[in-house]
Design goal:
The protein is an alpha+beta fold and 486 residues long. 19% of the residues lie in helices and 33% in strands.
């Protein structure tokens, strides 16, 4: 009996030791698994961060991180500061919130990726990375070469126009206006209006009066401060007479009301039609649900003016109560392209969509172009804006892009030197850093071609008075002529 009791006791002891050992192993394995899982959670996925940057950030900040290099950081430049900016956004400066788009870890990875990519880089480094575009370039229908008029334009060049003598006027968003000779000599024009160079605002487009050779009037669009509230600004237009390198008698002839605190979506392209009317684009200023579809304000609209800023009496909403009389068409988001068709004389408009939905439209009196009620784009954070892409009473675009190319500046080719390019539409891409050719048959887009890949953020495209096409690029600030090889 004692022997059996000893045997039972020994058996129970073995069971107890086995149990404790197994529990200990399980506990140790669980702890190790937890540690491994925790370690896996904090490993940055910079490959995914690079994709997120390309898809969500590069359109505004540049695929080569142009806006982050040598910048003045408003909200801090540490990883935690950048992550906070990505999370909560700063809508007044055009920065959306991504807290519902990315996980906290993805946001941290994105902030770390940005800091990694810009570490030690200068703007000069980006310039060195630009492709060698010397020699001839073969397009679908033309062999051509590039002539760089200058690569020394400081800051962000935004708009340009060629003077009758062959010189160029080039705006710099930071607030300066330059004369650039055909030899690349740059001089500053004095007498420009006071601008608010913050966010997407500053000195923007420039245009000559159709009778410039007799009256010397030039027109400038810009973000203008509210004289009664320095925190507010709006899109405005001034004109003055150019005398040498001085603007004289400058007067603000148009102001898009109301003034707002936001620093984005000023629009701000200018063009004259064949009858001498001036068209001015004004973006929605980031207030899409308030202004573009309402006609009692000047925001999210294209305006039509006399050359002195007065309103033509045949405008579609002239003399109508609770309507802004200068409005020609409405329902636009951020139109940074505007040009006149060389054959029909119609005014064509190009605008930034949100995430997708960039548009090309032919403007007509009183037309509603739909923003934001209809759109082919979605919010930057991936959420829908609307499920409607068309609706009765709202115009369809001639063409739209998905994904966005971030179109900025456009013109038709109307010179006699370019063969099959004649009457095609050329659009600058900020996001993808190329010149986009829309092959046209009348008003129909029949094909596409990407030219000058990775040349830089193309700010403006201009058909010069000398019959050549010019592009204006940032990073570095360059003015370039496209020359066909005969």
């Amino acid at each position: 009996m004692k022997y059996l009791n000893h045997l039972k006791l020994a058996f129970l002891s073995v069971l107890l030791i086995t149990f404790v050992f197994n529990c200990s192993n399980q506990t140790e394995t669980t702890v190790q698994d937890d540690i491994q899982e925790e370690e896996e959670e904090v490993v940055a996925d910079l490959t995914k961060a690079a994709i997120n940057y390309t898809n969500h950030c590069g359109g505004c900040h540049g695929q080569k991180f142009e806006s982050f290099i040598e910048r003045q950081w408003l909200y801090g430049n540490a990883s935690v500061d950048i992550a906070n900016s990505i999370t909560v956004g700063y809508e007044s400066n055009g920065m959306p919130a991504y807290e519902n788009t990315f996980s906290p870890q993805e946001i941290k990875d994105l902030a770390d990726y940005i800091l990694q990519e810009i570490e030690g880089k200068t703007k000069a480094d980006i310039e060195v990375e630009n492709p060698n575009l010397s020699g001839t370039i073969e397009s679908d229908d033309l062999i051509f070469r590039l002539e760089t008029i200058t690569n020394q334009i400081d800051g962000v060049p935004w708009g340009m126009v060629q003077l009758p003598n062959g010189d160029f006027l080039v705006t710099q968003r930071e607030g300066n206006l330059f004369r650039v000779t055909s030899k690349g000599v740059i001089s500053e024009i004095s007498g420009t209006p006071n601008v608010v160079a913050q966010g997407q605002g500053g000195l923007l487009d420039v245009m000559l009066h159709p009778d410039f050779e007799n009256n010397t009037y030039i027109y400038l669009s810009y973000s203008s401060p509210n004289p009664n509230n320095s925190n507010q600004r709006t899109t405005a237009v001034a004109r003055g007479r150019l005398s040498g390198n001085t603007l004289e008698g400058v007067q603000e002839i148009f102001t898009a009301l109301p003034y707002l605190t936001s620093g984005n979506h000023f629009g701000s392209r200018l063009v004259f039609d064949n009858a001498g009317y001036l068209y001015v684009t004004v973006g929605d200023r980031g207030n899409r649900d308030t202004y573009p579809q309402a006609l009692d304000n000047g925001v999210g609209k294209v305006h039509r003016l006399m050359d002195d800023g007065t309103v033509p009496t045949d405008n579609p909403f002239y003399n109508m109560q609770d309507h802004e009389w200068s409005v020609f068409s409405y329902g636009v988001r951020n139109p940074q392209g505007l040009t006149k068709h060389p054959v029909t004389g119609a005014i064509w408009e190009g605008e930034h969509g949100p995430q997708g939905g960039d548009e090309i439209n032919i403007l007509d009196s009183g037309n509603n172009y739909g923003w934001p009620t209809i759109t082919y784009g979605i919010n930057y954070n991936g959420t829908p804006i609307t499920d409607q892409t068309e609706m009765a009473g709202m115009e369809q675009p001639i063409h739209y892009w998905v994904p966005s190319i971030a179109p900025c500046g456009m013109d038709f080719l109307s010179g006699n030197f370019y063969g099959k390019w004649q009457n095609d539409l050329f659009v600058g891409s900020l996001k993808f850093r190329y010149l986009h050719r829309l092959k046209m048959d009348g008003n129909v887009v029949t094909g596409h071609e990407e030219l000058l890949n990775d040349i830089g953020r193309v700010r403006d495209v201009h058909m010069g008075k000398d019959g050549y096409m010019y592009v204006l690029v940032e990073g570095p600030g360059r003015l370039i002529r496209l020359v066909p090889e005969q």
